[in-house]
Amino acid sequence: MGNDALSAEQTALDRVDYPAVQASPEFQKLRRTHRSFVFPVLGACLVWYLAYVLLAVYAHDFMSTRVFGSVNLAMILGLAQVVTTFAVTMWYVSYANKHLDPKAEQLRDEIEQGDFDLAAAGTATTGTDAEGVTR
């Protein structure tokens, strides 16, 4: 009894033409918006991390420079790596809430309304997944 809603939802999702969803302009725009944020930020973070590692390996004198007490520059930059991780995470969540989630919700609503239904698209369903469907 408790699984009736789940099985009804699953059968509705089995009828979705996922290649059509992926080819839709809405999905392409969502993917482009996501990638236009993620790839540059990922690149910057990787450069920042690589710079830290290279400094730690090749610039011992620079990294061992005392800032105050027994705290040196390596410790400060290491903590900055952690802070950067949290800052980028918060930045991404904010970006996703403003730019990605509304578009994804709109696309999900279209899918749930049957705009990408295999039967509506004229494709026969045989109970098995269509070839090339990505889930």
Please describe what this structure looks like.
By secondary structure, the protein is mainly α. It contains 5 helices and 2 strands. Strands 1-2 form a two-stranded antiparallel ribbon. Strand 1 and strand 2 (71-72) form a beta hairpin. Mean pLDDT is 83; it is low at 123-131.
Helix content range: over 70%
Mean pLDDT: 83
Count of distinct strands: 2
Our measurement of the CA-to-CA distance between the termini, rounded to an integer number of angstroms, reads 27 Å
The fraction of residues assigned to DSSP E strands is under 5%
Structural class category: mainly alpha
Give the helix tally.
5
Radius of gyration: 24 Å
H/E series: HHHHEEH
Major sheet summary line? 2 strands, antiparallel
Principal-axis shape equals elongated
Strand order of the largest sheet: 1-2
Uncertain regions: pLDDT < 50 for 5+ in a row? 123-131
Quick tags:
135 residues, mainly alpha, two-stranded antiparallel sheet, 2 strands, 4% strand
How would you concisely characterize the structure shown here?
It contains five helices and two strands; from the N terminus they run H-H-H-H-E-E-H.
